[in-house]
Write a structure and sequence with these properties.
This protein has 440 residues and is an alpha/beta fold. The protein folds into three domains: 78 residues, Four Helix Bundle (Hemerythrin (Met), subunit A) (Up-down Bundle), CATH 1.20.120; 182 residues, P-loop containing nucleotide triphosphate hydrolases (Rossmann fold); 142 residues, Signal recognition particle, SRP54 subunit, M-domain (434 Repressor (Amino-terminal Domain)), CATH 1.10.260.30. It contains 18 helices and eight strands. It starts with 14 loop residues before the first helix and ends with a helix. The chain binds guanosine-5'-diphosphate and magnesium ion.
Length: 440
């Protein structure tokens, strides 16, 4: 992706440069082993956006382009998923040699270490001799209990017995068998185990080196058990992980952890920045993107959301919400975690709509500057005499003040409506959880 440098110092982008950029992006994606068709679709989309969208004022062209590439990739990767290790049964699936057993051990120890919960694992791979021994060895010296029956050939039986034995555990992880490719009997076994386990999570373990086959492999497992998360292993090697991206794009199951070595500690939480940097072969791209303006970071958005959820909704809250919305173009990453309804689907606002919104904001700011804190907190106080005073103080007509109040009223109703919406609440809750678990 060196050709991003082509944009350095340029003020406008021409078709030739866009083509050049797009070509080099596609090359980078293919070198990373991202699916051929998907690479084509993605680069065409970015090409189109580059021709159509202008950078926001003050944003350099190369940053603008990187933002676009980044947000498009994040769109595929999906919003981050946070798993609370309570009452979870996790099924590990994947082809032979991808790192299922190793990751089972890593994950068990991770949750035990970082969350202090009781974790137990079940070895249900009856096809690979020594699988039980391998898992036991990996977990030696940890407090994770391992269940297995090395002589048993019926995996279902082992799973049933294991589940019974570990009924008091917070988390149970079940390791399963995989071959080079899945044959019918193995497929059937996996479905049966999945049914017995009634797992809350099904993680597809995929080696970063798996290339173009990743998508079809992921599809197969997804059809069998319904994959809920992806774990990419061997990211300590040279592979760029494009195959994993194809897998995610196929199943829609986001990457939750990555494996970076053979030892039990070599597990990391997934971070999209790092992953995308690696995928594009660009070192650390953090410095090249500029998604959230300094005055509006993700934390602020969280804080605001938390306030909105608390049921209070002042004019100041409304202003902050609008300000956030007006910046959505540069905040796709954050917005992708939020329900579209929260911003009235404004992530698709056109340039002129954004401009209009900015104009409104400017005016609201002037008007609000003429209000007392009390009035901003309790806009219902604003009867006609106060409205007159505020209009005079801010040099606008009374109608503009009333418009502001009307907007506040509408937004407040919208917020109320959403508060009652269970899906929305759940989404908000999981967003808040991100905060709690940053130390995870
Ligand atoms: N370098 C590296 N090796 C790994 C990683 N995860 C697993 N392995 C190795 O890959 C091989 C296969 O792993 P295993 O867990 O047995 O795969 P399974 O057949 O899917 O259970 C073993 O030699 C592991 O040590 C990783 O993240 N990095
Ligand atoms: Mg194994």
């Amino acid at each position: 992706m060196g050709s991003i440098g082509l944009l350095k110092g340029k003020r406008t982008i021409d078709e030739e440069t866009v083509k050049e950029l797009s070509k080099s992006l596609r090359r980078a994606l293919l070198e990373a082993d991202f699916n051929v068709r998907q690479s084509k679709e993605l680069t065409e989309r970015i090409e189109r956006r580059m021709m159509e969208e202008e950078p926001l004022p003050g944003v350099r062209l190369e940053t603008h382009a990187m933002n676009m590439i980044y947000t498009e990739l994040v769109r595929i990767l999906g919003p981050p998923r946070n798993i609370r290790p309570h009452n979870e049964t996790v099924l590990m699936v994947g082809l032979y040699g991808q790192g299922k057993t190793t990751t089972t051990a890593k994950l068990a120890d991770w949750w035990r270490r970082k969350h202090g919960v009781k974790v137990a694992v079940i070895e249900a791979d009856v096809h690979r001799p020594g699988a039980f021994q391998q898992l036991k060895q990996l977990l030696e010296g940890t407090n994770v209990e391992v269940y297995g029956e090395p002589e048993e050939t019926d995996a279902k039986k082992i799973v049933r017995n294991g589940l019974k034995k570990f009924s008091a555990a917070d988390v149970i992880i079940i390791d399963t068998a995989g071959r080079d490719s899945l044959d019918e009997s193995l497929k059937e076994e996996l479905i049966e185990i999945s049914n017995i386990a009634n797992a809350t999570e099904k993680f597809l373990v995929i080696d970063a080196q798996v290339g173009q086959a990743a998508g079809p492999v992921a599809q197969t497992f997804h059809d069998l058990v319904g994959v809920t998360g992806t774990i990419v292993t061997k990211l300590d090697g040279t592979a760029r992980g494009g195959g994993a991206l194809s897998a995610v794009s196929t199943t829609g199951a986001p990457i939750v952890f990555v494996g970076e070595g053979e030892r039990i500690n070599d597990l990391e939480k997934f971070e999209s920045d790092r992953f995308i940097s690696r995928l594009l072969g660009m070192g650390d791209i953090k410095g090249l993107i500029d998604l959230a303006p300094e005055d509006m970071d993700e934390q602020e958005a969280m804080r605001l959301t938390q306030r909105l959820m608390s049921g209070r909704f002042t004019l100041t809250d409304m202003y902050a919400q609008m300000e956030m919305t007006s910046k959505i173009g540069t905040m796709d990453k954050l917005i992708s975690h939020l329900p579209d309804s929260m911003f009235g689907g404004m992530s698709n606002m056109s340039r002129s709509q954004k401009q209009q919104m900015q104009n409104n904001l400017d005016q609201y700011k002037v008007i609000m500057d003429s209000m007392t804190q009390n009035e901003k907190d309790e806009p219902v106080l604003l009867k006609s005499s106060r409205i007159k005073r505020i209009a005079r103080g801010s040099g606008v007509d009374e109608k503009s003040v009333k418009d502001l109040l009307g907007h506040w009223n509408k937004s407040k109703k919208m917020m109320r409506g959403m508060k009652g919406n269970r899906k929305f609440r759940r989404q908000m809750q999981s967003m808040m959880d991100l905060d709690d678990d940053l130390g995870m």
